[in-house]
């Protein structure tokens, strides 16, 4: 098995992809809008990936947050609200917000489970500050790290009840970034003391099954490398100060925050301590190059992957009316 999570080119596997993936055996896959047409097509695709890998617990990821980030969209799937809405509800009725967030994750999770998707890139527990880039924006719950931690825990709980593995992101925090890491490398100049504000939600959720790094440089932690390729940040901050023990993947290798070739980026992320490298483009030549140069997954990383994929051993039948219960709580709290 290779420590790669790869994107696909379209709504079904091409013959070339089938040959590559069967030989390479990447740790998992990530889906985007280009891979999603309707429930029947999507389930056929995920079943095909699972059959090709020979693993019933294959990680098949998607970004299904709600709001402006969701890959499964109407008319076949619900339009889910953004995280910020639950933060607004928290300001009025915290316990209602927690329950609404839990039902929110259950509703999303039930749809993903039915589609054969096993991992959601959620919850996002970045804590934004004034003046930060809007790439996070309403994807965040709000600016109180204790609130963010509580709502993030509710999201993880709801996903677990739906049989879906969650990923906390973007560790150790993207909320202060003044640039979009898809386009450029953000530099955060906050002091180590100020960064404790950002780390708190991740510390509270350090028993999550998976986490995704931030392509952000933190001057107080490692001024020379962004977090995804920094041994200091991964071992000293993420594994050390935060205490995260689950599977750690880097954010997308194709983002412009990183420098060097894709192969160099992958090697840097793995050498720094990431368990797996995420590459989302679905470009066949890029996937081939990464597979050719990737090492085998480490024993420790494989153990963390296996543990993550049994974390959400649950029956999703209880989630049938989760969306309606979420919406009722939001309406009653914000009315």
UniProtKB/TrEMBL annotation:
Domain Glycoside hydrolase family 3 N-terminal: 15-293
Documented EC number(s): 3.2.1.52
Family annotation (InterPro entries): Glyco_hydro_3_N, NagZ_Beta-hexosaminidase
Record carries keyword Hydrolase: yes
UniProt enzyme class: hydrolase
Keywords noted in UniProt: Glycosidase, Hydrolase
Pfam family, one: Glyco_hydro_3
Record-level Gene Ontology MF annotations: beta-N-acetylhexosaminidase activity
UniProt record similarity statement: Belongs to the glycosyl hydrolase 3 family.
Protein name stated in the entry: Beta-N-acetylhexosaminidase
Organism encoding this protein: Pacificimonas pallii
Name of the encoding gene: nagZ
């Amino acid at each position: 098995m290779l420590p790669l999570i790869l994107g696909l080119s379209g709504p079904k596997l091409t013959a070339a992809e089938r040959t590559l993936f069967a030989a390479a055996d990447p740790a998992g896959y990530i889906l985007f809008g280009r891979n999603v047409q309707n429930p029947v097509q999507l389930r056929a695709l995920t079943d095909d990936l699972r059959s090709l890998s020979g693993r019933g617990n294959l990680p098949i990821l998607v970004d299904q947050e709600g709001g402006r980030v969701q890959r499964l969209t109407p008319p076949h799937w619900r339009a889910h609200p953004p995280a910020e809405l639950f933060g607004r509800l928290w300001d009025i009725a915290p316990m209602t917000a927690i329950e609404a967030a839990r039902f929110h994750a259950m509703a999303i999770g039930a749809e993903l489970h039915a589609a054969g998707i096993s991992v959601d890139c959620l919850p996002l527990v970045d804590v934004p500050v004034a003046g930060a880039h809007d790439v996070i924006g309403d994807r965040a719950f709000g600016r109180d790290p204790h609130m963010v931690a509580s709502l993030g825990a509710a999201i993880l709980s709801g996903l677990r009840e739906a049989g879906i593995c969650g990923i906390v992101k973007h560790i150790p925090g993207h909320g202060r970034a003044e640039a979009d890491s898809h386009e450029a490398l953000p530099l955060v100049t906050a002091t180590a003391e100020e960064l404790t504000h950002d780390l708190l939600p991740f510390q509270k959720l350090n028993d999550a099954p998976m986490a995704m790094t931030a392509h952000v440089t933190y001057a107080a932690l490692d001024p020379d490398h962004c977090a995804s390729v920094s041994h200091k940040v991964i071992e000293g901050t993420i594994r050390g100060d935060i205490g995260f023990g689950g599977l750690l993947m880097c954010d997308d290798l194709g983002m412009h925050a990183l420098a060097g070739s894709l192969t160099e980026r992958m090697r840097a992320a793995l050498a720094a301590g990431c368990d797996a490298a995420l590459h989302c483009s679905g470009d066949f030549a890029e996937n081939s190059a990464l597979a050719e140069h990737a090492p085998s997954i480490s024993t420790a990383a494989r153990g963390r992957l296996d543990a993550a994929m049994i974390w959400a051993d649950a029956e999703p039948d209880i989630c049938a009316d989760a969306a309606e219960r979420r919406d009722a709580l939001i309406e009653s709290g914000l009315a």
